[in-house]
Amino acid sequence: MVATADDFFFPGLGNPRTPNPLTGFIVTAVNVNNLLGFNTLGISFVCIDYMHLTDRTHLTLIHLPLRFLVVAEGTLLVGFVTSNPENRLFTNTLNEGDVFVFPEGLIHFQVNIGHSHAVAFAGLNSPNPSVITIANTVFGSTPAKDASILARAFQLDS
Question: In terms of one coarse class, where is the protein primarily found (predicted)?
Fold first, then answer.
């Protein structure tokens, strides 16, 4: 197969996408599956659209091989938590044009705290990444985890 210019081009990230009302965001992935030029580079790219929050806050803790995030539109509160024993929280408020770097392997978050829709672009160090939503992973497994196991893990009385 001979490469063409289209193998190195992905259109449409400038078009707004409708975020999922449950999570408050939607991720559009650009990876080796839809941009062949990424083949063998070990990287990918995402565009994240965040919904404008009116009466509730969407805070979704996620794990994905995110390396850096660039805000294109809006204002985001972003952060990550270090591992045990400190579990230290690092946060920053990002505006258009700001960049934040996420260390590898740490749970991180982004929240739209602005007064309108927000958009960010992120570079990933995986050729075909997936989003791991922490709440779904912990509380939404099939079959469900025993409540006593979760209570103990979260140091709850019941």
Answer: secreted
> Per-residue pLDDT tens for 133-142?
777 778 888 9
- Model pLDDT for residues 13-54, shown as the tens digit of each residue: 988 899 888 778 898 999 999 999 999 999 999 999 998 876
Could you tell me which residues are annotated as the binding site?
Answer: 63, 108
The angle formed by the CA atoms of residues 131, 132 and 133, to the nearest 5 degrees, is: 110
Binding region for Mn(2+): 63, 108
Q: Which residues belong to the annotated binding site for oxalate?
A: 63
Does 59 map to a domain? yes
Please state, in angstroms and rounded to a whole number, the distance separating the CA atoms of residues 106 and 122: 16
Residue 69 structural domain = 5-132
**Domain-located, residue 36:** yes
| CATH code of residue 114 | 2.60.120.10
